[in-house]
Give the backbone structure.
Amino acid sequence: MIQLELKGSDRRVVEQGGVVAPPWELAALEALDAEIRSVFSERDMITPDDVRRPGLTLEQSVRRFGWPALRRARGQVAFLFDNDPGPSSTAYTAGHPNLEGRAVFTNSRPGRPDAAFIKRNEPRNENTAAIQQLVREGYLVRTRSDLPLQTVKSGDTTMLKAALRSGAQIVSTDFPEVGMSARYGSDYVARLPNGRPARCNPVNARANCRSNRLERLGGGRGPRNAGRR
């Protein structure tokens, strides 16, 4: 999974004479798609066209049929927009409501035709159950395990535990390896239980799913059943 965050101008920097970044309008988004496809061939990527079923919206497709199986998806990449719904996603989906022909999955909202990937950065408290429900419904969900540098300095692992319990298939962290937080006087690390590279999704994995067999054998139905961090 490759997350893309489309950056714009910082008003405070511009006021001090900084560079004004060009807006992410249709031409720039089309250029981004072209750039991606200049490097990755269709067989190297999972795109919205690979997930959508005939006669259904992209959202209906993931909710009814899930995502490509791990065995089929192995070795491929998928691009995801980290940006919240707004002008850039509106431009990107104009004329492509189901992301037809697009290279990137938008961060969308349930009920929209392009809703396949959803970002929920806060996994704690009532958000845990909300993310679990989204996962059960077939969406690919991204959340976070820590807040730099607040989490590292406090040593509080509440957010990490909630993220792992939520079943979100993508858990973002700045500290995925032992020792990365040492410069801040901390031993914090965000990893899957037992140090595995993958695990069965705690929310919707099949009863016969075994985490220690995922990397060796593949199987399952991709993000609906196997969470990879």
Summary: Residues 26-39 form the longest helix (14 residues).
